[in-house]
Amino acid sequence: MKAAWKATERSALKGWEWRVAPLKLPPREEKSFGSEEGRAVVEDAKATAARRVNAAFQLAWRKRLDRPIDVCCLDLGTALVLHLPGEPFVAYQLKAQEMRKDAFVCVAGYGDGGPGYIPTDDAYPQGGYEPTVALAAPSEAALHKVMAKALGAKED
To answer: Which domain holds residue 95?
Structure first.
């Protein structure tokens, strides 16, 4: 920590910009993520609390799909703070840094908790907890496009 503190580079703030880019994430299409199935789980008194809560999150997410999520970026010139929705995989932090190699880029998750986990497209078929319960369908390209806009970067 001491070495990191000593290595900190400081620069004068000459201005700032707040950018917002709208993002619409597609819903999961598997039957278990459907509204009918979700309602059945919520209403099942024998289902575990965890299953019922997860089903309620799924229903709430589906209900607001038509409303875009704001992906925001605070641009301080040499440093940028990008606010992504849900709990994004670390690959999105790395991509953001790649998009703006000219600046120090920080990524903050949970700018909007609605979609839950935001896996990379490759993670879905690999399985595991996060891709299994993620509420949005694979949408890495759409997220990259919006990230580039919010970061003020050129798209790939």
So the answer is: 16-26+67-151
